[in-house]
Amino acid sequence: MNPAFGLRICRWLLRFFPAAFRAEYEEEMLSTVAGRHSAMVRRSGASVVGFWTRECIALLRAAWRVRAREPRRRRRSAETQQKKEWNMGLLLRDVRIALRSLRRAPTFTIVAVVTLALGIGANTAIFSVVHNVLLTPLDFENPREVVAVWGEDENYSQLPVATGDFRDIREQSTTISDFSARYSTPTSLTGDDGEPEEVTVIWATANYFSLIGITPSLGRSYTEEEEDAVVLSNGLWRRRYGSDPNVLGKRIVIGGQPHVVVGVLPAGVNPNVTMLRSVRETNDIWRLMRPRWLENDDRINAWLRIVGRLKPEATVEQAQAEMNTIAQRILEVAQDNAHVGFRLHVVSIHDDIVRRARPLLLVLMGAVTFVLLIACFNVANLLLVRAQGRSQEMAVRSALGGGRGQLARQLLVESTLLGLLGGAAGVGLASAGISLLRALRPANLPRLETVNLDGSVLIFALAGSLVAAVLFGFVPAVRASRADLMTSLTDRGTSHDRGHQRISRALIVSEVALSLVLLAGTGLLLRSFVELRKIRPGFDTDHVLTVSLSESGRAEDGEQAMLFFRQFEEEVSALPGVEAIGYANRIPLGGGLYGGPWATEETQARGDTEEEGAFRFVSAGYFQAMGTRLLAGRFFNANEDWEVAIVDEKTAAMAWPGEDPIGKRIWTGALGRNGDWSRVIGVVEHQRHGNVNEDYNETVFFPEFRGWPGMQRYAAIRTSVNAASIGPSIRATLRRLDPNATLARMRTVEELVGNALAPNRFALLLIAIFAGVAVLLAAVGLYGVISYSVSQRTREIGIRIAFGAANSSIMRLVVGQGFVLTVLGVVLGIVGAMGLTRVISSLLVGVAPTDPVTFTVVAAVLVAVGLLGSYVPARRALKVDPTEALRTE
């Protein structure tokens, strides 16, 4: 038989199958039959007629079975559809009933929704920060592959890399396909229609943008041949040039040198990665780092920040293992004290940026979780009280045929609606909270500009609302659905449900315990902040103004630049209210690092390794202007010999313990100044340059140096009047001396200290807000439980009063109940806080995570709050009329 004829017969037989079955399976069945025919042909001796006969009979049998099952399948499908419609109808009915029930109790609904909104809103706001800062990848091409390479030693885990070391890393690495380097410096921007302005210039290799995967939104990047080409940040382009697309090709003057604009970076993208000490840095202008700068074999001056891109098959762990080997080779080649303890550390760019923000964000996420739990416990208490009042309603529903499952479902629907309403209100509060976070702009919180209520955050808010609904609604729903029918109807809903009371009290104890943990964290952060304020940073904080300034750069050598600053110093010192003025290449707490290795004849004789220190170049009046105390010797004089130096007390104690450092010699190499050795003429108190709570390395001060045209200096001006009030006079003086000179970032030392303390203040503020909300919710919950208990015990209290009980005994009865619950919660909270407060130890300064004073004060505060929450119901109990109380029974 012809196979085609056999398939036509099979296709005709398939007409006996239902149409829906044929549409889904016809082609598959025909294909199967054809496959079996081909296999049969390959077997010798098979009967073709017999094969097609068997296939036709099999098709007829299958058609009979399918058609027999079809009515049953249709019935099942109809029943399933009817069941779905019935279930949907039941759900809509439950929703309508729940809405009517909530509308009839507006006070309860508003209190519950506001309580949940506080918890869900706080969680949503903090999660939006966690999601965008910690969980969202950077806006780079394949961001997982981009890594930072840092140097390490015994003192620092983040050190820039010297050019000689960078060359070895680039040549020997096999796991990283490409490297780029950069560094930043402040300088002046002139040469256009705008006012002279201080800008941050980022010097980067030509492959920097292509390596991290960023393309300018306007124009292009620079090439290795374009030493005068620059790329503007989007912020500078919008602020100074009004988003003018014709800025391309415009000639501007940076640091006294002409440059041409070739590109503008995209908005919302910050390519300023590899953040030293995780400090957010601005970026205004990008320009080419000269390739010849990277060709020298210098291994002392560490100033390069390195970024690389992993090969697709490589991992960070593999790159780290390779860098360990390369670091050992560098140590063998360098053979100098500057590399003692030298290591290389590889970290993904994302982790490098957020590593210091992660502990704070995780602590805040834990805090808002506690707030949400307290809110859920509070609403659960409200539902328990409401369920007791609705006992007759539940009994009537049960008598009319409502099963326990139906009653529990109805109450869970109400809880879900409350959760969704609270979530919707919480999203609004979260939006306001995000705006507050952006306004605060803590210095240790990167990528804050990317934080928003995106789809992932809204899904989190929805999930949080549903989880909260289950948390606070499950137990009250189950308890209410199990109400005894006869008891509820005969006792008219006024029976004292001991089960409800036990659950309510357990919830209140839990609320107090969670509140104590948050209050303990707040107290520890507050004490830490107070200790930070007590620390003297090595200078006076009152009546000192700091300004960042640079001359126009027209001078051909640094000598003229130094003369300009001296003239500025003389002019400003003559202004009314100015007591002293001095300047330096870096200002304390003003950002920027500059330093290197140092040693003394004594440390070299002892065989000690060289130490890493900070180097500062200052004018003669700098210490007097800053209010830094002289401990020994003398300050610099005008036109001081460059062969002298002043050290801080930390350097003196480390180099010459128990000795007089005056007259001793200190080595700082070419990085410190021209010449290796300097004679110590004075000792000053230690200045904290990086942060108030971090005691950075020792400091060596040198007399002012000529520098180069357009170099930035920081002036310190001591006044007898309000420091900020002399700002206009200083600006006018600078304009008179040089109209193209720049003066920016005019800040008082008080502002510098305040900015340095901003991360600690930010953590304290948020934890304090969350703790305050938690305590308020706990107090309201305690008040509700005690009030309900008083209403349940009205008959008992009336009898006590009728038999002559004194007001003090009634007060003790009611307040004592709240006192016991509060004390139980405090005890449990102290036990939990002893372990949990260790999580914030990295945020504490000068106080232990288990500080007994803080725990004692916090416990006393919570007990006082508990007594206050019990006092109002106790006062109401005193007003119970015995006659009315007995009559109601």
Structural write-up:
This protein has 889 residues and is an alpha+beta fold. Helix content is 54%, strand content 15%. The strands form three sheets. It has a six-stranded mixed beta barrel with strand order 3-4-9-6-8-7. The protein has a six-stranded mixed barrel with strand order 14-15-20-17-19-18. A hairpin with a 6-residue loop joins strand 3 (176-190) and strand 4 (197-204). The termini are far apart.
How would the blueprint of this fold be written?
Blueprint: H1 3-13, H2 19-42, H3 48-104, H4 106-135, E1 146-152, E2 161-162, H5 163-172, E3 176-190, E4 197-204, H6 208-212, E5 218-219, E6 229-232, H7 234-241, E7 251-254, E8 257-264, E9 285-288, E10 302-310, H8 316-334, E11 343-348, H9 349-354, H10 357-389, H11 391-399, H12 404-440, H13 455-481, H14 485-490, H15 498-534, E12 544-550, H16 558-573, E13 578-584, E14 595-600, H17 601-606, E15 611-618, H18 622-626, E16 630-633, E17 644-648, H19 649-655, E18 665-667, H20 669-672, E19 677-684, E20 699-703, E21 712-719, H21 727-737, E22 742-748, H22 749-756, H23 758-792, H24 794-802, H25 807-836, H26 852-878, H27 882-888
Parallel strand pairs: 4-9, 6-8, 15-20, 17-19
Antiparallel strand pairs: 1-10, 1-11, 2-10, 3-4, 3-7, 3-10, 5-8, 6-9, 7-8, 12-21, 12-22, 13-21, 14-15, 14-18, 16-19, 17-20, 18-19
Helix pairs in contact: 1-2, 1-3, 2-3, 3-12, 4-10, 4-12, 4-13, 5-8, 10-13, 10-15, 10-23, 12-13, 15-23, 15-25, 15-26, 16-21, 23-25, 23-26, 24-27, 25-26
